[in-house]
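Hi R.,

Here are the chain sequences for the assembly we discussed:
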Amino acid sequence: MARKSNQPEKKLLVIEDLRVSVEEKEILHHVDLEINPGETHALFGPNGSGKTTLLMAAMGFPSYHITGGRILFRGEDITYLPLDQRANLGIGLSFQRPPTIKGVKMRQMLEICGKGEKDPESMAQSLDFEEFLDRDLNDGFSGGEIKRSELLQLMAQDPDFFLLDEPESGVDLESIALIGKVIEGLLQRETITHEGKSRKELKRERRKSGLIITHTGYILDYLDADIGHVLMDGELACSGNPREILKTIKERGYDECVRCCVNR
Amino acid sequence: MGLTQEDKKALAKDAREKVATFGSDIDMDAFTPETDEHPYVEDISSFSQTEREQMLKAGVDLGAKNRSGTFVQKNLSVVHGRSSQEGMEIMDIEEARDKYNWLYDYWWKAVPVDMDKYTARAELHQEHGYFIRSLPGVKSIYPLQACLYLEEDNLAQDVHNIIIAEEGSELHIITGCATAPHVRSGLHVGISEFYVKKGAKLTFTMIHNWAGKMAVRPRSATIVEQGGLFLSNYVCMQPVGTLQMYPVTHLVGEESTARYNSILVATPGSEMDVGSRVFLKAKGARAEIISRAITTGGKITARGHIKGEVPGIKAHLECKGLILSDKGIIHAVPELEGHRMEVDLSHEAAVGKIAQEEVEYLMARGLSEEEATSTIVRGFLHVEIEGLPPELKAEMDRAVEISEKSLL
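And here is the predicted structure of the full complex:
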């Protein structure tokens, strides 16, 4: 999609005609996606449709081979930029199944993520995670603890663009509220402000953006995503109001999305 | 009781040519057996800057206030030995032998004199070593430190050390072996016999900082009585020519415990055959052996052996190796030996390269590939040691840190 030359920095993320292969097999075919600063997008799709692949490719994991198209971040072509450089540009990802790193403490990881500028203690408090600070990273963590650990690391990293892979999966109902609230905060989507600003003002000032994979949609109860997309067989099948899409999927399944798509 | 001094001498003579079970065979005649005496140094601040620095790399801090005693042997002379806490003894083993008749009862009691040609040599050529003892019920306020320092190239140093934690006492020791910067080769044969009496606690941290052509053959054994605890930490991350040791602990008292932690790094040209073994001989005995081995091109054989001889014992062996170069070899040999039905023995061994998944995880948080790798290696080497006093933990951390820098 062509950008107007007088607004070169308007888009935060632009994905153009992206094709991605994993182990010689093409998973994503011709994906186009644009995300503006301050926007949060929800990504739906059945298992195996390529949702995680899209996030991993956007983050730059080397085993996700980009075979066509390009990715722009704030107008800069990052298609072949290494992982760490993308992280330092302001892209952060929460892992579904992060590895355990023995001997590296949660506290140390938060110092790494926050470049030593954030206080692990106070951050951990907000996620009720203080008692994990001196544990080895992800060692023996439950599903819900992994989610909290990942969000805590992102909190320290403070990226401008969040790639969240099913932040609510494997989390008990009580913790979903906590996680939802933290994500809302990270994406600057709180609806209550202490500075007496209107919602409109808040929205205008919002800088943080996100792309969130959600199966259940529970997370949408805690933050209003601006746009929803459905990924089917490696292609974005449709985009629109995330709540409507979720409602359709819940009532009629992904087949209806396909049909809707075909008839488009 | 048992063998007389003459018997031991005779056994040693017979074992002079006895090749050791493990490690390459060393031609001990290639090393100089004698050298000039060094005078006793009363004031430890008068050691040279170089000596202090080399010793510090091996964890022996001559300037530290938080030490309850210091012993230094340079080449074949004991140049310092003094305790600053009542009830803690640290001295030349020869001095202890003159002072205490009973010391012979401990001499070659834990380590067999005729184990191999190295123990035989120590009996026949021994020059000093240290004696450290905590009197009954006395707890060390600060750790005691001992350094065996080699200043002359190609010298043979044969020492015999005896360490006794008397009943109910608590003794913390850090020992470092170091060479002067110009030393390339040499032979170190060190006999260490540890006795942990009833209810006593002994922690022993040893840091080796040898030279690239050194041949090192320590021979150590420990006897732990009822309710006693022996904790041994060993760090060798600097180049060494050939190092072989397989210390053993005999848990002879009920509810006694032994824990060994070893951190080994083999640089190109280094050959290490290092293990720990624990024989659990009384009910309620517990043992844990943990080792971390990294090769950047050298060869490491990481052994471990736990033997449960009676019911109601529990022991675990953990051996992990990281290969950072295709020229390096890590050979893990964990052995479990149960002699009764009611023994609980387990082991965990893993050898491989750094997991790419872990590197990428850290890179996704903004670390470069090199930073991510070094963070993982540092984590790998970080072993949590229960019951280690903070001063000793600090020395271990420092030794690991110094070596990490040269490693990566």
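Residues 5-407 of chain B form one domain. The longest helix of chain B spans residues 390-407.

Let me know if anything looks off.

Best,
T.
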